[in-house]
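User: Sequence recovery, please. Input:
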């Protein structure tokens, strides 16, 4: 399925970074099943897949962008998940 962003939206692909250091065994604590930890990071690195037609020239497809994680929107179309964010919620780009 092909998703094309419109306006100032960016279609992004979150990058999952695993800990490359040795894993330390953490102590275990029993918690209620309803407990949800607040471990969401404020900023996240994402790969920009497609760019809306009204976006500026500083963000292009295949750019690594640092985005405000709380502003990422997950859109489910049929059985496919897409992640979008407005251009102004990207706080910077990473040069490789």
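Assistant: Recovered sequence (96 residues):
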């Amino acid at each position: 399925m092909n998703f094309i962003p419109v306006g100032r939206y960016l279609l992004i692909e979150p990058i999952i970074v695993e800990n490359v250091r040795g894993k330390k065994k953490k102590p275990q604590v029993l918690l209620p099943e309803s407990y949800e930890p607040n471990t969401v990071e404020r900023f996240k690195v994402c790969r920009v897949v497609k760019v809306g037609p009204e976006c500026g020239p500083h963000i292009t497809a295949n750019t690594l962008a640092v985005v405000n994680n709380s502003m990422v929107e997950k859109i489910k179309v049929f059985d496919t998940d897409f992640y979008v964010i407005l251009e102004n919620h990207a706080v910077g780009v990473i040069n490789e």
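The radius of gyration is 16 Å.
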